[in-house]
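Subject: sequence -> structure tokens, single chain

Hey, anyone have a minute? Need the predicted structure for the following. Not urgent.
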Amino acid sequence: MDINEPMINEEIRDREVRLIGADGEQLGIMPTKDALDKAEQAGLDLVKIVPNAQPPVCKLMDYDKHRFEQSKRERDLRKNQRIVTLKEVQLSATIEENDVQTKFKNAVKFLQDGDKVKVSIRFRGRQITHADIGMKIMQDFASRIQEYGSIERRPLLEGRHMIMILAPKAEKKSFAEKSQKRKEIQAAGEPAEESAQPAGKEPKPQPTKKVRRESENMI
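Reply:
Had a minute. Here:
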């Protein structure tokens, strides 16, 4: 038996249990044999849900259905969780334009999938004395991809490697979407009195209030 699975039916060896009905009703403490009889009569399973209680707490349920629903909830939860991974794109100090285009397409795909991208350049031999060339390549790559990602970590030289981290760009709403949202908010905030005014009738003029000045009280 799986240690993570609860004891059910004849696996329960306790002398007595506290029983809960399928609808959550408290049925009280009774011998385990009586609880098993109730489960059999209802066509359900006797499942030990709180094994460390005194006496243990058991519940009447369709255990196969319960396990299926629990498995489905776990699958849905995993499906809705987005795990961000770090992908890598390797450039070089002597990279050609066609190779840059290929690396660019790969990086765009990673970013659109929601992953971060590590852009690296490895300097070979005396190339390390011209790290400024690598910096220009990094800056050019970042400017090309700015529509899809933003720089999370600026290019830094670590030994013979220059590394830059790109993160997916947060999705932004278009101007039309923002404008529509503002209109909805304004419509929701309009006073109701205007709509309640009968058509064809002008609103009655409100009497002006006389403001008593302090000088009037002093006369």
